[in-house]
UniProtKB/TrEMBL annotation:
<dbReference type="InterPro" id="IPR036393">
    <property type="entry name" value="AceGlu_kinase-like_sf"/>
</dbReference>
<feature type="binding site">
    <location>
        <position position="163"/>
    </location>
    <ligand>
        <name>ATP</name>
    </ligand>
</feature>
<keyword id="KW-0067">ATP-binding</keyword>
<feature type="domain" description="Aspartate/glutamate/uridylate kinase">
    <location>
        <begin position="8"/>
        <end position="216"/>
    </location>
</feature>
<keyword id="KW-0418">Kinase</keyword>
<dbReference type="InterPro" id="IPR015963">
    <property type="entry name" value="Uridylate_kinase_bac"/>
</dbReference>
<feature type="binding site">
    <location>
        <position position="60"/>
    </location>
    <ligand>
        <name>ATP</name>
    </ligand>
</feature>
<dbReference type="GO" id="GO:0005524">
    <property type="term" value="F:ATP binding"/>
</dbReference>
<feature type="binding site">
    <location>
        <position position="164"/>
    </location>
    <ligand>
        <name>ATP</name>
    </ligand>
</feature>
<dbReference type="GO" id="GO:0006225">
    <property type="term" value="P:UDP biosynthetic process"/>
</dbReference>
<feature type="binding site">
    <location>
        <begin position="13"/>
        <end position="16"/>
    </location>
    <ligand>
        <name>ATP</name>
    </ligand>
</feature>
<keyword id="KW-0547">Nucleotide-binding</keyword>
<comment type="function">
    <text>Catalyzes the reversible phosphorylation of UMP to UDP.</text>
</comment>
<feature type="binding site">
    <location>
        <position position="56"/>
    </location>
    <ligand>
        <name>ATP</name>
    </ligand>
</feature>
<dbReference type="Pfam" id="PF00696">
    <property type="entry name" value="AA_kinase"/>
</dbReference>
<feature type="binding site">
    <location>
        <begin position="136"/>
        <end position="143"/>
    </location>
    <ligand>
        <name>UMP</name>
    </ligand>
</feature>
<dbReference type="GO" id="GO:0044210">
    <property type="term" value="P:'de novo' CTP biosynthetic process"/>
</dbReference>
Amino acid sequence: IKMSLKYKRVLLKLSGEALMGSDPFGINRETIMQMVQQVKEIVELGVEVAIVVGGGNIFRGVSAQAGSMDRATADYMGMLATVMNALALKEALESLGTKARVQSALTMQQVAEAYARPKALQYLEEGKVVIFAAGTGNPFFTTDTAAALRGAEMQCDVMLKATNVDGIYTADPKKDPSATRYQSVTFDEAIKKKLKVMDSTAFTLCQERNLNIVVFGIQKMGALKSVVLGEDEGTLVHN
Ligand code: UDP
């Protein structure tokens, strides 16, 4: 059976926490394997996959700043944390036989290739997963902003933001049992209703570049596949 893809090239944003599973920090083996299994599934459907990974499971600049560390230094440490996650993702993907490359926004030639747009585009066309590490390479930004930036640069059809909740709700579903999930919402509505999708820099960049966002829950096996097949999964944010 030939399944029709809603999205041909996607930017998948994985937060650091998504790799943590139920552990208090770091990378949970089962969790990361479950995640890359899902990535493998959509690669095999013919989807081109770029990934931006966060670092919050290891280090987060804002929290370190609260502990009186210089913010820029703390942010560089946060970016280094994303490099560790990126390497772990690459290894996990390749253990399943899915080809992957890591490109880092901070150069560290012994560890990963430096970010190079043409090369990254070539990898995607070859069906390799490209994992972008070190965020934007600049302090005071987030990996959500890096995801918006790389998503736009790679001309992705959509940004898929994997979260612990399966979409955007009218209220916090953990606190309000009557909360319902939006199937879709426009960028303007999201702003007006003060729905927290991403930080404002990332959000604005997506809106300006016309990069739609799907917020979805990645815990459920097969969720990523459902999203790229256009089945009702998560919340679509669009212009
Ligand atoms: N970071 C940064 N610039 C970037 C991306 C990330 O300085 O372009 C730093 C920042 O300190 C951040 C940390 O890296 O707290 C980890 O990224 P993020 O918090 O976005 O990870 P996530 O929440 O997705 O796990």
